[in-house]
Design goal:
Spore Coat Polysaccharide Biosynthesis Protein SpsA, Chain A, 2 domains, 10 helices
Amino acid sequence: MNELKVERGKWKVNQDRYGATFLFPLSSFHLKAKLSIIIPTHERAEILARCLHHLATQTIVKDLEVIVVSDGHDEATAQLFEKDDLPLAICDLRFIEIAKSQQGIARNVGVKHATAPCVLFIGDDIFLESHACETHLQTHKWQIANGQWQMAILGYTTWDPSVGITPVMRWLEESGWQFGYPLLKGYEHKAIPKEMQHRFTYTSHISLPTEIAKKYPFREDVTLYGWEDIEWGSRLRDAGIPLIFEPDARALHHHQITLESSLRRMEILGESAVKMEKLLPGFDRLPRGWKRTAYQLSALLPTMAGRHRRAFLNGIRMTQ
């Protein structure tokens, strides 16, 4: 059995039956984590390091188990866990490397190794504010105290101003095209209506009981960009699991988007939406009938919304 030696002590290296290589500090076995944070990552070591440092500042850092799952081998990411400046406050920090697949599979592998009663999914470019993890746990406890044992908790995410917020980023946020938080006004600290909750199961910042995460894993045959969250959220909805919006669990999204990249993203979403409809019964994100006509008319306008609708329709046409 190989061992890596870093300032934090020895790291045990092993390989599970799924072919995932993982390592974790030997000193962590005595810990009883209250929250497992699962972070899929792919070739973004520098941003991941900043994400981890934000986790090290959490008010309940000693109650955290952090599981990083690298989707494919990346030398810079692997070397990150051999450096002396890893966040020392994170007592239980694990690194898992899997063959290149997709984020859903990476999350599933992370859940298999989670030992805490609740898991929190975040992206590697999500920087949690210091009280975020504590707020997630407190919300779970409050819901349980009020008789709600099964639920998912959606935290609040906004752009990180340090990346330089572009006009399209501001529009995406205010309009709800990127994250639909403006549509959740009035549902703070409450369950999002069942008929719309699947549209808000953002896996960049959402927590739920580990038992539920294991019972409802991400589909490993859904590899299309942009829709795995909705597919997963639809199954949670159909299972009667409510989604609670907790705006006090706050985070920053450290990612810059230009108009060009945003329009390209919309084309890709249009392409994958057509394929998703064939794969999943009840998929409701393609405009039909009069909605399609209204969509086409609004796509003619030289506005942000018009340009994004036009890009989405182009993606649909390229696939049909």
